[in-house]
Design brief:
With 171 residues, this protein is α+β, with helices and mostly antiparallel strands. It has a single domain, classed as Aminopeptidase. Helices cover 32% and strands 35% of the residues. The chain has four helices and seven strands. A seven-stranded mixed beta sheet has the order 1-2-3-4-5-7-6. The protein starts with 6 loop residues before the first strand and ends in a 9-residue tail after the last strand.
Length: 171
């Protein structure tokens, strides 16, 4: 019998290809209604190009239940601001959204970044994810644009949050 408990663990090299496929499925299902098919496809291809960051500096985590990959997310340090961590690469399997998986991944990444001395978190949010990050305490800084392929650009939102240590919990 497989466990029904959600497990969050560090991403390993063996996870990377499967997580790039999860990201692609998430973008195509959740991003297409907001950005259109061409922009969503270009954005999804970038996941395969940048999947190596999941094993890089900072920390990236996989959420799984019973061996099934359900989400990925993490943080990277900012190279210029020692207090800043970037929340990055957060994607949830589109068949499992709105089950608390994304929230758990962001909270896990925030705790890990805070334990490394990072007290401010920034994230480039897609339009479809803005309500999610707002619910987690992030606030809009400014609207931005990101070139995903050739002349294709995605509008997005820079959002920010400061670490507030939960009562009774240390990073």
């Amino acid at each position: 019998m497989q466990s029904s408990e959600l497990v969050i663990r560090p991403v390993t090299a063996a996870d990377v290809d499967g997580l790039a496929a999860l990201q692609e499925a998430s973008i195509l299902r959740l991003g297409t209604p907001v950005y259109g098919a061409a922009k969503a496809r270009a954005w999804a291809r970038m996941g395969h190009e940048f999947k190596h960051v999941l094993i890089g500096e900072g920390g990236f985590f996989l959420a799984e239940r019973g061996g099934q990959r359900l989400g990925v997310g993490g943080w990277s340090p900012d190279s210029l601001e020692p207090e800043l961590a970037w929340i990055r690469y957060l994607f949830v399997d589109p068949d499992h959204v709105r089950q608390g998986i994304g929230r758990r991944l962001v909270e896990h990444a925030e705790r890990a970044a805070a334990a490394a001395g990072r007290r401010r978190f920034d994230v480039w949010s897609s339009f479809n994810a803005e309500p999610f990050y707002t619910a987690l305490g992030y606030r809009r800084v400014r609207r931005t644009r990101w070139r995903v392929s050739g002349a294709l650009e995605l509008d997005n939102i820079l959002m920010r949050k400061r670490w507030e240590e939960p009562a009774g919990v240390s990073p």
